[in-house]
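Format notes (please read before filing issues)

Several people have asked whether sequences and C-alpha cells are stored in separate files. They are not. Every record keeps both together, in the order shown below: the sequence lines, then the C-alpha cell lines. Line labels are part of the format and must not be stripped during preprocessing.
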Amino acid sequence: MTELGELLWTPSPERVAATNMARFAERLGCDGYEALHDLSVSEPDRFWPAVWDECGLVGDPGSTVLDPGASMPEARFFPDARLSVVEHVLRRTGSEPAVIAESETGSRSMSWDHLAIEVGAMAAALAEVGVGEGDRVAAWLPNGIEAVVAMLGAAALGAVFSSTSPDFGAAGVLDRFGQIEPVVLFAVDGYDYGGVHHDRRDVRAEIEAGLPTLRRTVVLGHDWASFLEPHRGTPAPLVRRSFDHPWYVLYSSGTTGTPKCIVHATGRVLLQHAKEHQLHTDLSAGDRLLYVTTCGWMMWNWLVSALASGVTIVTVDGNVAHPGPSRLWDLVDRHGVDVLGVGAKYLDALAHQGYAPAEHHDLSSLRTLASTGSPLSPERFAWVHEHVKADVHLASISGGTDLCACFVLGDPTSSVHAGEIQRPGLGMAVDVWSEAGEPLGPGQRGELVCTRPFPSQPLGFWGDDDGSRYRAAYYDRYPDAGDGYGVWHHGDFASWTEHGGVVIHGRSDTTLNPGGIRIGTAEIYRAVEGLPGIAESLVFGEEVTDDDGGTDVRIVLLVVLDAGVELDDELRARIAGTVRSSCSPRHVPRRIVAVADLPRTRSGKLVELAVADAVNGREVRNTEALLDPDVLWAVRDAVTDR
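Then the structure lines:
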C-alpha cells in the first residue's frame, strides 16, 4: 500500500530551471514556490500586474490593480482595464492547428487562420439575428470545433455564452437555459457515445418549445454551414470591453433546487486561466493540451481558454474508453499532447482493468498529467508513475464551477507526494478552518476557505439582483471574519500536509460525486416524483470502498410508494430510464430502496445530510430537529440491511 505523503517524483534541476514558474519567481526575486506564494497573497498590487505581463495579456490594464470594496464579494481587480478575449485568441496566426477535434466517428482540425475566418463569420451571423452585448447565446453541443466557434463568436459581440452537453435531458437543460432566456440556441439532433448513436430530435424540440425567447436555433449538420456561409470574409470585431464584462454563465449542480446561474467575467476568468495554464501547468505557445470534458463542465471553459496562450487544444467527444482503453493514449501519441487532463475515476478504471498505458504507447510528448473531479488516492498516484510514465508531472487539481478555476493545483517546480495536491494556487489565500473559524494545522480536517479576494470571484448569480443568494452561498458561513470583510467558504473538507500541500476529503454539502461527477439531487427528484406510484423520494450518496482502499460515492434513491405498488424490476427500469432521459446517464441511481417513510425536520424538510451520515457511519448531528428520529434509523437499516 502506498502511504499518504510518500515522495513519488521530484523534477530535475534542469527541468525546474526551464519552467515558466521558475522564470517568473526569479523575476519577482523569490526563492522557491513558498516565497512566491507568500508574495502573491500579501502584495496583490505587485503580483497581478506581473502575471498580466508574464502571461502576455494585451489591452489596457488601467492604473488600479485592486479595489477591495467594503467586503470581499465587492472586491474588484483591474476596475479600469479593457481587453478582448477574442483578440487574445486570434492574435496567433498560421496553418498550424488551433483546435483538433476527435469524435467516435472521425478526426478534424482547424488552423489558427481558419479559426479567425469562422469566428468572424459567426459574429456577423449572430449580429444579423440581433445578438448584441449582454444577450445570451446557449449551446447544447458536443465537445468539438463548433462549440469553440460559437463561444468566440458570441464573445466578439459581448454576448454571454452558456453551454451544456447533449446527454442532458430537456428538463435539465430548461432548468439551466430557461433562467437566462437565450436568444440563440446551438443544438444537435443526436450524439454518439460508446458506439451507439442517440437520437435527440424530440428532446431538442422540447427544449426549443421551452425557450420562448429564442430568435434562432442553429442545428449542427443541418443549417450550421448556411448560417455562416454568407458572412465568411467578415473579420471578427476585437472590441475591448471591461475586465468585468460578463463572459459565461455556468451552473451549480442543483442540489437544493433549480441550479444557480453563476455569472463569470471576461478578464476575471482570462487572467486566472492564463496564470494556471502558463505557470502552474507550464504551457507555452505551440504546446498541445487535451482535457477530457464535456461542454457541461467548467473544465471545458478552462480548456478553451488555453487558446489565448497560443496553445493548441485537443477536444474529445464520446467515450474515451471506446472501443478500448487505448483510445485516449493513442490520441496523446498521435497529436503529441504535452498536457493531458482526466478525471480521477478514469485512472481508477484503467487500473482495475489492468491496462498499463506505458506498455502500449510511447508517450514521449507527455510532460504533465492533470487529474480532477474527485480526490486521487495515494495508490493511484503511485500507479500513474509506475504504469503511465515515471517522469511525468502528476498534477491533482481542485477548484470548481463557482470560481471557474482552481484553489489548489500543480507546481512544476516542486515534488509530488502520494495523495496530495501540491500547492495552493498563486494569488489564492487558501486556508483550512475549523467550524469556529480558527486556522488548522497539517493533518487537521476542516473547511476550505480563501481569506482574501481573487480575480475569478463570480460577478454573482443571474437574477439575484440584490446579491443575497450569492453572499449566502459563499460568504455567510464566517460572517465575522476579517472584521466583517468576509472570507470565501468553498464547501470542501480539506487538510494541509507537512509538505505544504492539500488533501481534499470530499464535499461538505450534499452534492453527490459519483465517479467524480458533481450531481444535484433536486434534478433527480424532479424526474422521479412525477412517475405514477411514487409518493416521495430522497437521494443521497453512499460511500463505497474500491479495491485500492480509495472511496467513491454511489447514488442511492429512497422511494416511498403508493399503496399497492411494489418496487419490482419494471418500476426500477422505469425510474432509471426516466432519470436518464430527464437528467443524464450520470444521474441514474446505483441503488433504489423502498422505505415506509422518509426522515424530515419538524418543519417538513427532508434531511439528506442526516441520511448520508447515518448510512455512512458518521455521527448524526442535531437529531432533535427531526420530527421522528426513528424514521432515520429505519432508513439506515433498510439501506445497510441491518
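For reference, the curators noted about this record: The first helix runs from residue 13 to 17. The longest strand covers residues 534-545.
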